[in-house]
């Protein structure tokens, strides 16, 4: 278990031990010229995610609005978890922050989920629960906030105002909940959210566990003798059921020390009831339906409907 003293933000620039690198760190020329670009909702002028030499994923952009150090700090805290990318470097250059991370194998779960059998989905869900149990078992610091105990990295707590009553970090959960009402200037929410939401443990939370942020690889088929199949023994394959192995959980931008309901509620408040991911999410982390329903109301205040 990590102690509460293991979570301060590292001084920048940060570079890992050279012995841990899979190859030389990519140069700025390589990064800016990379042709393999990963999906990003922002224009490339402000944020870009690229793959370099199939060894590194580099996320870079204007800081702190589009890229900040919270994700890198999360990767450092979770560096012992195999499904979390390693952080190789984090540094500023020309007003942009660069995160150089491990390139993990696998395909986005979003692209293969629909073709999985019920048994294959159940196996993937079990793996995810085991991973999240490990993440949530880390000893928490005494505040609700970002990974390095700074302002909360989730959008309900972001404001152009320099107001720690809204941004955090928060010494108690009541202040954490009141902050969401303060941010939308809703006196009713500010008064009632602390009581309605109750009290919860602080746990390390990913905050955006959509399928697109989960990678999986299909395990090689076994022969009828329980060994890996190879050339010349195609007739002995036993490919049912297939097995998918979780190879990575990425995009830790919103990670932080949050109330224990937040991981579930962050999916529930955007629930798509035509998608079985919503129905299965309570098998990954414990369900907090009441808290998730209240956050649906909070979300409407932020989204204006």
From TrEMBL:
MF annotations from Gene Ontology: transferase activity
Record flagged with keyword Membrane: no
UniProt keyword Transferase, yes or no: yes
Domain Aminoglycoside phosphotransferase: 74-216
Pfam families cross-referenced by the UniProt entry: APH (PF01636)
Domain of life: Eukaryota
Keywords noted in UniProt: Transferase
Protein name: Phosphotransferase enzyme family protein
Originating organism: Pyricularia oryzae (strain 70-15 / ATCC MYA-4617 / FGSC 8958) (Rice blast fungus)
